[in-house]
Design a protein that fits this description.
The protein is of the alpha+beta class. It is built from three helices and twelve strands. The strands form three sheets. A six-stranded antiparallel beta sheet has the order 4-3-1-2-9-10. Strands 5, 6, 11 and 12 form a four-stranded antiparallel beta sheet that branches. The protein starts with 8 loop residues before the first strand and ends in a 6-residue tail after the last strand.
Length: about 200
């Protein structure tokens, strides 16, 4: 499916490796200046400086970054930025980082999911980010994700969104079906794992 044209929106792909050697990737969409301006390399670099805090920190407010919950065998490699309305060429920024948790990692296919919600109902206006498998220290009560892990993760996402707003960026949901973008109004995360089969191995 070809990428849509959505004014001011950048497709942001963070890539890394699971402990098993399988690759993981998380794709977010961010919009600059409400779509009124096309971001260039400078704006994308400013976006990256804040957005990467979701995975590699540092902490924002009462939040915590995801690699803090992952085993050292889980790594981040880089972030790729592609402006959906043209303008700047694709930008790749390397981010050599690894998890810091001491406990053994969960199976590679286990993913904690952050749901992005907008003010519009419907699947086209809701996004999901399947974070790489955390370390076992984040699990209790028969395989459920710890409440403290969820609370810290969501606080980090909210803090990053506020920091992005201050530089005219926002995380949101891009609908490739409708070629539209909606700012995320909230982030949620439940205490159950989802399974990503292609990460298995």
């Amino acid at each position: 499916m070809p990428l849509p044209t959505i004014p001011g929106v950048a497709r942001c792909t963070f890539r890394g490796l699971m402990e098993s050697g399988k690759q993981w990737s998380n794709v977010l969409h961010c919009r600059y200046a409400g779509g009124a301006s096309t971001p260039g390399v400078t704006e994308l670099t400013n976006l990256d400086a804040v957005l990467q805090k979701l995975w590699m920190g540092p902490v924002v407010g009462a939040g915590d970054f995801w690699l803090h919950f992952a085993h050292s065998g889980v790594t981040l490699i880089d972030a790729q930025y592609y402006v959906l309305s043209g303008g700047a060429p694709p930008l790749v920024i390397t981010h050599p980082a690894a998890g810091t948790a001491a406990t053994q990692t969960c199976p590679s296919e286990c993913a904690c999911v952050v749901t992005l919600r907008t003010g519009t109902r419907g699947r086209s206006y809701r996004g999901r980010t399947y974070l790489p498998a955390p370390a076992l220290g984040n699990i209790a009560n028969g395989g459920l994700i710890l409440g403290t892990t969820i609370t810290s993760t969501l606080a980090q996402w909210n803090g990053v969104q506020a920091a992005l707003n201050a530089i005219q960026w926002s995380i949101g949901v891009a609908s490739y079906l409708h070629s539209t973008f909606a700012d995320a109004s909230s982030f949620t995360m439940d205490n159950r794992f989802d399974v990503i089969r292609h990460r298995k191995g």
